[in-house]
Amino acid sequence: MKRPMKRLYPIIPLIEERAARDQVPHRADAPTSEALGYPGELVEDWQARAIERLGERVAGSRALRVFMDSCTRCGACTDKCHYFLGTHDPNNMPVARQELLRAVWRRYHTWSGRWFPWLVGARDLTRERLDDWYRYFHQCSECRRCAVFCPQGIDTSEVSMAGRDILATVGLGQRYGQTIVEKAGRLGNNLGLKRPALADVLESLEEDILEETGVAVRLPLDRTGCEILVVTPSADFFAEPHVDGLIGYAKVLHAAGVSWTFSSHASEAANFGLFAGNLEQERQLAERLMTAVITLGVSRLVIGECGHAWRVAGARLPALVGDLSMLAKGRAEHLCELTVELLQAGRIRLDPARNAGVVATYHDSCNVARGAMMGERADGAFELPRRLLRAAVPEFVEMAESSTRRQTFCCGGGGGLLSDELLPLRVQGAEPRARALRSVVDERAVTHLVAICAICKTQFGSVLPAHQLGQVQVTSLHALVGDALVLAVPPGDPDRHEAPVT
Amino acid sequence: MAGRLAGPLFTLVIAWSLGALLWRMVRWVRTPQPVPVPLTPAPRTRAGVLARLGAELFAFRSLFRASRITWAASLALHYGLLGILLVHARFLMPVLPTWMVPVLQISGWATLLTLTGIAVLAARRMLIDRLRWISVPSDHLHLVLLATIVLGGAALKRWWPTDLYATGVFLRGALTLDWQPPPMHAGLWLHLGSVLLLIAVFPISKLVHGLAIPFTPTWNTRGR
Description:
The complex is a heterodimer of chains A (502) and B (224). With 502 residues, chain A is mainly alpha-helical. Chain A has two domains: 30-173, Orthogonal Bundle (Fumarate Reductase Iron-sulfur Protein, Chain B, domain 2); 183-489, no CATH class. Chain A contains 24 helices and eight strands. In chain A, the strands form two sheets. Chain A has a four-stranded parallel sheet with strand order 2-1-3-4. Chain A has a four-stranded parallel sheet with strand order 6-5-7-8, sandwiched between helices. In chain A, helix 2 (46-59) runs antiparallel to helix 10 (156-169), helix 8 (127-137) crosses helix 10 and helix 18 crosses helix 20 (380-392). Chain A is globular, with a radius of gyration of 23 Å. With 224 residues, chain B is mostly helical. Chain B contains twelve helices and no strands. Chain B has helices spanning 2-30, 46-59, 61-66, 68-88, 100-105, 107-127, 129-134, 137-158, 164-176, 186-201, 209-212, 217-220. In chain B, helix 1 (2-30) crosses helix 9, helix 4 packs antiparallel against helix 6 (107-127) and helix 8 runs antiparallel to helix 10 (186-201). At the A-B interface, helix 3, helix 5, helix 7, helix 9 and helix 17 of A face helix 1, helix 3, helix 7, helix 8 and helix 12 of B.
């Protein structure tokens, strides 16, 4: 298929010193930080403790150790970050972001930096630099696009994560991220939904679906003895357009006659411990999933439409929680894999005519594209969602090649930056995606932007109007799949007799 | 006096460099990686991982994606240097074997390739505002050092001849601890001195970057 617009940026913008200086996330409040085991405010000996923590981080991570040593400042990454392309602030060039940390590493932890700081670009850790750490490690969405182009395979997200952890350790935590980690650890999900509220939501959604389709589709909670546990970002329970995706999941699983359930204990797929660079937090949140798997007695763990949740569950789960042999496939699965499996087995049928008028394009979410494998094929993370989309809509259009698949741009709100005070940054960070999208809207009359990540969906909903793309409908993949689904009663299922046969 | 010290100094610097490189690699290997961080899509087999590392090591695949000009210049620089190193193997051999004769023929092309690469990399570092902004003094100096070595070597070969046989005796002596003085020749001393500096800083500067590639967890980890 011909793709419009080959080069998104024929000319790379010139740098503008400190253009994004004012975009700083709110600091965490003391009680939240303390609840997570961090100091409530900047500690007095912050310099010594930050330098020490930096040493610990490097000693504990081969990735970080190699990345500290191997950058040549070749500049291959300098025009690859959406925040650089959007803000023009040179500190948002991935290499510059890394150098914020690496220059301090050289100063205190290497021989050349101790003796010849002026020669090798080593820098003292001043209060000013610490503030720059806070500023620019929170202008990175940890999307890893730069790593795709780095001839050393350096992953800036590892640097940003380490930087955020060091900052939290000396008392400079980010409010949005820490509030969420604290809530998810205490209540099981990022929204702080308790079980009764969750049950209410699911029940009212069941009524909505019945009213709309005449089919009694269930959204079971804490049902034991099922085959599948579905864990999804809690935004799916409430936010628009996420909830339409949730309804889509339920319709698919109903139509295929799968026995499945949600869990109130693991009512959150998202794991902001990853964004914070705190392995212990990440592990504790991930363990909720395994507890639910075991107590509910399911044999398959399926992750809904959430980008970084899939990175955690798909690529990091065994390292975090250990043995997964209680799962039928020995691993977590992505919902798209399951839906494709059901489609191929003929257990569900999709009729794209039911989405008449929809011209859809697909945004590869960064963590899905670059963070974990999906299905059995190497390019499953790109192909499986597209296969579903093609089967669900009459017309599917690709955006520019430099903005899809492994080269996809972050939506501009990932990595724990989806907070209101960072809205100007999020608008600027969405610029590359908006460019690619505008081109297919103008040339191919695209109506829907499809994503499989809760953050992407929320972010696009908020920022596309600022790019004069408010007319494009941001949609869950499974919302379109659910709309295209031919809902019928699986034969021989007495539980479903109330559903009309179509 | 200086002539007699040159051999032991050479031996010492080479020993330091090899030792430090080994230490650095051991430290990379021994640093734990608690969670896998593959950059996906990642190969699922060991052979696939080797192929990925090979493509990065020998063809600079990711750099190709990033910028064709930087890629071409880097390839020219590195393969030019490889050619130059091959030509220098003559100094390790007391008698020139016949199969070395065609190898020596690439000398001019290898030099040209290397110098072109250095020139392009230096130019972009100075001309492109983003590159200028991220560069530190040692980035420029590494290129200056390389250019000094290559230009000095080219001068020795073409316009400022020295005793190649005695140079070989000196070099083999330094490697076998049978130290011999090098010819007293300003051009040769400049060349050897700059090479010595390069070898000395190699393990404690960004010059180690190529060795780090096999240890990079984003690439050497299998996708599930």
